[in-house]
Amino acid sequence: MRPCVAVIGGGISGLAAAHRLTELDASLDVVLLESRGQLGGVLETANEQGFLVEGAADSFLTTPTAAVDLCHRLGLDAELMGTAKTCRTAFVLSGERLLPVPVGFHLMAPSRMWPLIKSPILSWRGKLRAGLECLLPARRTDGDESVQSFVCRRFGKELFERLVQPLVSGIYTGDPQRLSIEATFPRFRQMERAHGSMLRAMLRQPKSQEASSGARYGQFATLRGGMTTLVNALAERLPPGAVQLDSPVSALQPLDRGRWQLEIGGGCPRFMQVEGVIHAAPAHQGAKLLQDVDAELAEELHGIEYASCAVVGLGYRREQIGHPLNGFGLVVPLVEQRMILSCSFSSIKYPGRAPEDAVLMRVFIGGDCQSGLMRLSRDELIAVAEKEVAELLQVRGEPVLRKIFKHRQAMPQYHVGHRERIARIGECLRRFPSLAFAGSALHGVGLPSCIQSGETAAAQVARQLAVDGAKQGDSIAQLLR
Ligand SMILES: Cc1cc2nc3c(=O)[nH]c(=O)nc-3n(C[C@H](O)[C@H](O)[C@H](O)COP(=O)(O)OP(=O)(O)OC[C@H]3O[C@@H](n4cnc5c(N)ncnc54)[C@H](O)[C@@H]3O)c2cc1C
User: Fold this and answer.
1) Where do the domains of the chain lie, and which CATH numbers do they carry?
2) Which residues are CB-contacts of 402 (< 8 A; sequence separation ≥ 6)?
3) Average pLDDT for residues 448-463, to the nearest whole number?
4) Could you say which of 54, 94, 119, 304 would form a disulfide bridge with 283 (CB–CB 3.0 to 4.6 Å)?
5) Sign for the pseudo-dihedral over CA of 204, 206, 209, 213
6) β-strand partners of 366
7) Whose CA is nearest to atom 25 of ligand 1?
8) Ligand 1 in reach of 43 Cβ (< 6 A)
9) Lowest mean pLDDT among 170-174, 433-437, 456-460
């Protein structure tokens, strides 16, 4: 009998886990159970009227290398592409104007002072307060704090509101008042600990040659055909019959010798018994599945909140847009009281995503701070995106393409204390060696972290089954002796 491992959830984390299991041990049976009728989870690529529109992620970091490594192993090298070499900047809305994020300002702190001093984004008072950061003593006590508290403490409220909040909210669609600095940007807290000041640490870093700001665009890559290329390549590598779509796991029950019974489907469920389980669905699903198995674990999983958001793809003819589009996108501070979080100039960042003489925008709406907007209908959300983009980028006329992706409860929020919670979840899981967790709720929401989490979970379960197999082998050998 070949031991069987069930992977719950066919997003990138579950796919990476299932694929890694087949790489590690060809003697394992792998089943990937996905509740929806398609794989990829939040990842979806639409090809319409010559536009390539991503529904969620459109890029991944090349360091850590898990995503790029996986693409290499899947033979997708020719599909990999970097961001355009020019226009590597983002704009931030400041009153009526779109101003470039100062060169060298990366998410939370400047690596160069002069561009920040010259920029009109901050008042003189705000600049002075930010500059004082290098004189402030470092916080000596350990323990987590919110992103907002950390940045306001170091650089002052103005720099937080005008630059950090919009840049950070663009990544986590979260509320910086609740997001954990230790779980989201530990690097910056480490800088404070090690150097006493982030400014001193950033200014000491070797200066990169690229004049970028906002995100470090040179460190991002994508796939020419979009993220579904990766999803499809992973699915194709799985053994025939391994993927079971429209198969929501509705209950999970431990059996003897580390085995599990899964209930699949609602009204008239079917059952499956397996030797190992990898849970790669959202944490709130895990909480439901495990509430009768381990109340403590279920409660910890339940405590991980999720945010909802929408991505609206809008295509325009280039001549419809008054703005020069000499950047990769724009972010909108909450203090500006607009109805969008950000807008990515997709076809500028990744040429080829719109027909010749056309431009593709992706507008982000919602998140933890503007969750009420998610009650709007799809048409209303598209209308919001159109109106805001028209005002901010001086657009004339109707878009030639409209496409919306709504993500309900899709983005885990790493609130203050997240790392401690994940450690406690790890402790609970020690009670179930043949059950592993993967996914964006754990150690990072970016694709490399999700892939890494899936591959680590696969290694853990494969190792456990090998141990169990060896134990059984030993006892058989003893019996034979
Ligand atoms: C709008 C948006 C933009 C983003 N942009 C980027 C970006 O540019 N770069 C980047 O690196 N990351 C980005 N991310 C983050 C990244 O895309 C996600 O963190 C990652 O794709 C999550 O993958 P996952 O497999 O962990 O979860 P999911 O994609 O949520 O997949 C979970 C799967 O589990 C399934 N499932 C749920 N319950 C059950 C059940 N009971 N039984 C079986 N299956 C079940 C779901 O249907 C789903 O398919 C973005 C995310 C969003 C939402």
Assistant:
1) 4-41+226-304+415-480 (3.50.50.60), 80-87+306-412 (3.90.660.20), 102-208 (1.10.3110.10)
2) 312, 313, 314, 315, 382, 386
3) 97
4) 304
5) negative
6) 309
7) 11
8) yes
9) 170-174
User: How far apart, in whole angstroms, are the C-alpha atoms of residue 365 and residue 375?
Assistant: 11
The arithmetic mean of pLDDT across residues 442-454, rounded, is 96
CA of 336 to the centre of ligand 1 (A): 29
Q: Give me the mean pLDDT over the 147-151 stretch.
A: 96
CA of 421 to the centre of ligand 1 (A): 20
Question: Is residue 288 packed enough to be buried (19+ CB in 10 Å), middle (13-18) or exposed (0-12)?
Answer: middle
Our separate counts of H helices and E strands in the chain read: 17, 22
Residues for the chain: how many in total? 481
Per-residue pLDDT of 245-276, as tens digits, reads 999 999 999 999 999 999 999 889 999 999 99
User: For residue 411, which atom of ligand 1 is closest to its CA?
Assistant: 53
Cβ atoms of 147 and 167 closer than 8 Å: no
- Closest atom of ligand 1 to 42 CA is 29
Q: Whose CA is nearest to atom 4 of ligand 1?
A: 57
**Is 230 buried (19+), middle (13-18) or exposed (0-12) by CB count in 10 A?**
buried
Which ligand 1 atom minimizes the distance to the CA of 448?
11
Instruction: Tell me whether strands 4-8 and 29-33 are parallel, antiparallel or unpaired.
Output: parallel
